[in-house]
Each structure stands twice: as C-alpha cells, then as structure tokens.
Design goal:
The protein has 14 helices and 15 strands. With 415 residues, it is of the alpha/beta class. It folds into two domains: 242 residues, 3-Layer(aba) Sandwich (Peroxisomal Thiolase, Chain A, domain 1); 151 residues, Peroxisomal Thiolase, Chain A, domain 1 (3-Layer(aba) Sandwich), CATH 3.40.47.10. The strands form three sheets. Strands 5-4-6-8-1-9-15-14-10-11 form a ten-stranded mixed sheet, sandwiched between helices.
Length: 415
Amino acid sequence: MNTSPHDTIVITGVGLTAPNGQSLAEFRSNLLAGVSGVTAYTVRYFGDTVAGLCPFDTGRYQSRKELRTGTRAGSISIYCAHEALRDAGLALADLDRSRLGVFIGITEHGNVETENEIYEISKFNYDVKYWSHHHNPRTVANNPAGEVTVNLGITGPHYTIGAACAAGNLGVVNGVQQLLLGEVDMALAGGVSESPRTFGIFAAFRSQNALASHPDPRQASRPFDRARNGIVVSEGGALFVLERLDRALARGARIYGQIAGYAYNSDALDMVLPNPERQTECMRRAIARAGLRPQDIHLVNTHATGTPAGDAKECEAIRAVFGPECTETWINNTKSFIGHAMGAAGALELAGNLPSFDDRLVHPTINLDDLDPACAMNGLVAGRPQAAKKLDAILNNSFGMLGINCVLVVRRHPR
C-alpha cells in the first residue's frame, strides 16, 4: 500500500461493546486477566444454552422512542460510533458531516425483527394488521449504518456490508478504500452483531452439530482444544475512526496503528467448510500488500470459532504461511473469551489486540486445556499473556460462510 502521509490510513478512535467489556480499556484488561464474557442464556422456543451478551448502556445515546423503533444492531452501532468519536477526541459540531462515511459489516440482519413480529402477531391469531409499520426500515440491509447516520446527523455515504463472519474486517477495508478514493475525509468502520437475539441461529447451529455446550458457560468457547464442540453465539460491535495520516498528525490525534495491508477472496468450495488453500492465499496477499514478510508479523489473531473442522483447517493454513523462520510470531484467539460475535468478530478481535503495540503483551487463548495435535502451531499463546520482544505488525484473520475470507495487517505507527 502507499506510504505517503496522505495515502496512509490510520486508526485514531475505537468504540466497542463486547461480552466482557464496554470500552477498549475494560475489554483489554479482561483479555489480559483471562476473564470470559460468556454466560448462560435462554432463547425463546429453543431453551437453555450459552451466549455472549453485551450489557452496554442503551440509553446513553438514544431516546426511549429511538430504542423502541430501531434495532439491536442499530443500538450497538450507535453506541460504538459515539464512543469511537469520543475516543478520537472529535466533536460532531466540529466535523463536516457530509465528508464522514459509515461502513459497517454484519453477518445477517432482519432475522431478529422478523421473528419478533411473527411472535407478536401470533398473540392475535396471526392478524397482519398488528404487524409493525417499523418493520421495513428495521430490516433493510443498510439499517445498522443508516441508524448511525440518522442518530448522529451524518450526511456522508453509508452502507452495511454483508460478509458473513468476515464482515468486521471487510467493514474496515471499505472505510480504507473510500478514504483512498477521496469519497470521504473520515470513516466510522467496523462490524456489529445482534445474533443471539434470534432463536433461528441457535437451532441451525445445533442441527449442524456446531453449537457449543459446557456445564460452565465460561468454558464453552474453547478453540483448538481437543474437547471443543462448537460455536458460542455472541453479540457485540467495534467501530474505528479511520482518517488519513496527514490529517491525524495535523490535529495531534493519538494513533493506534496504521492499516498496512489487506486481502479478501473466496473459497469457491462449500457453503460451510473452509478451504485452507484460499485462506493461505489470503494471508500471503495481505502480508505482501503491506510490504512485509511472514516473519515481520509479530501477532496473528486467529479466526478459530471452536468447531473441530474449522479450527484445524485454519491452523493448517497458518502453518503454511508462518514457517520455522517466524521465531518472533505469536498466535492467539479472542473468541475463547467472548464467543463468536459474527459480523463484529474481526473488528472486536482487532480492537482487543491493538494495545499490544503499546504494552507488547499478547493476550492468551483461554480454555485450552488439551491441545488438539491438528491445531498445534509454533508461538500459540495459551493460559497467560506472553511478553513480546517486538510487536510491530498484527495480522487479523476473518473467515466466513460461503467461503469469504478477509485478512487485515495493521502496523505500529512510528511515533
């Protein structure tokens, strides 16, 4: 990617809500301390299970009317957008809101709202006159990003990116691309998820034998472990303020890191099963685009969700990219703490690892008690944080259904 200050895109603000943290500071603290955010959860029609839920203050930036007419994904997006701007030291009144874009990735949208409406009219013998007139704006594909623009009065471009579980990373990529094209001067970009609010996703994962279970909810999400048995469905969100380096320097902004490279491709193989060859290709392209070699990457955040096949395939791909010469490359997993936040996963996982540039600590993978030999990788961090001699580049993996892959490389800003 280009390296001039005008063409270098940096992260200057982070707003998030995760099952184990409602700010970056709290999230990071709990990742280093090994604190899980997965809890017991009961789903309508489905019954008892486990999930990652976010207890953020929904009334901080929305009125009761807005909460009543909007969506959970919209509320998560609005919360994260406000928090990201505040973290970046930006006041809306000082911004040209026609030059601010909103680009949000999501796995699915509309399922929650449709299930709720059907449930409500079932109380009235399915009389559709009781169907909410708010249903259409709640379920259009651009809703989460659109709700942000309405709430914040942003008149620049917005759209929601449907990219399965690669959506969080791809939301960031779209923000970068729009900045480089000159369509916007600043972007709010990342991903969100409201997935636990729908019973359908739990039922579908169970029918695939891919839904995690454990007597202790905190131990249900266990990527790479021999006893892993599926996905913990979670909600959450993370949005970043992205801007050009020259603009960030001019206003004296704190810089979390700079987007050094990215790649995205398709497996073209199966609806669900991943293709490690395409994952390998995606990682290599992102690293090359950043002008780096695999041994220049000091932290790899894995996508691994806790499914037997998915974890092993990703590990195969990682081993193909990061060989024995990568002696300073550490590997971790964030889903072991929060479950799979679907469209928010990539963005949340990147956010949780960004502070490594400052403290040079790699947060661990938890619940890894008995490593599956198929998931063995050099540099895998488990149990407790690992101090790194160097931490100048992070690679963030996100892979989704229908074979969509997206990899981000973020570098330390040489401040």
